[in-house]
């Protein structure tokens, strides 16, 4: 992954729900409130994957969403990161043996940062953002 200067300390995030129960979305909305203020780390939600640096994925990937997830991932310009929020995205959670799942998100896309929890608290989501920034700094130092 090759990083540009504009990528430094600025994570524009596109959120994608792949079949979540909405618990993670409620915590993401709580995270972007002024109480936690993730914009201090440069994190900002954007409305299009074409403007994003990070793809924030919640929920297990249902069969209907698998192809759409790949298409959205391809629309995010390189270099990009994928953050998986919540237990359902990591293992399927309570839906892990459901007939309608295509698998956890890491069977569909390469995941860079995992944020565990059902649903994860805003502090855990911000910790995941900080880990993503640390990964970017390591990649930048390696260049």
Low-confidence stretches: none
* SSE series: EHEEEHEHEEH
Q: Treating each run of at least 4 consecutive H or I residues as one helix, how many helices? A: 4
Alpha-carbon Rg, integer: 14 Å
Gross morphology: globular
Mean pLDDT: 86
> Terminal Cα separation, in Å?
9 Å
Widest β-sheet, arrangement of strands: 2-1-3-5-7
Helix content: 25-40%
| Biggest beta-sheet profile | 5 strands, parallel
Structural class: alpha/beta
Report the portion of residues in β strands.
Answer: 15-25%
DSSP strand tally: 7
Question: What would you note in describing this structure?
Answer:
- The protein is built from four helices and seven strands.
- Helix 1 (23-31) links the parallel strand 1 and strand 2.
- The strands form two sheets. It has a five-stranded parallel β-sheet, with helices on both faces. Strands 4-6 form a two-stranded antiparallel ribbon.
- The chain has helices spanning 23-31, 63-75, 87-91, 122-142, and strands at 11-17, 43-45, 54-58, 61-62, 81-85, 101-103, 113-115.
- With 143 residues, it is of the alpha/beta class.
- Helix 1 (23-31) packs across helix 4 (122-142).
- The mean pLDDT is 86.
List keywords for this structure.
alpha/beta; 7 strands; two-stranded antiparallel ribbon; 143 residues; 5-stranded parallel beta sheet
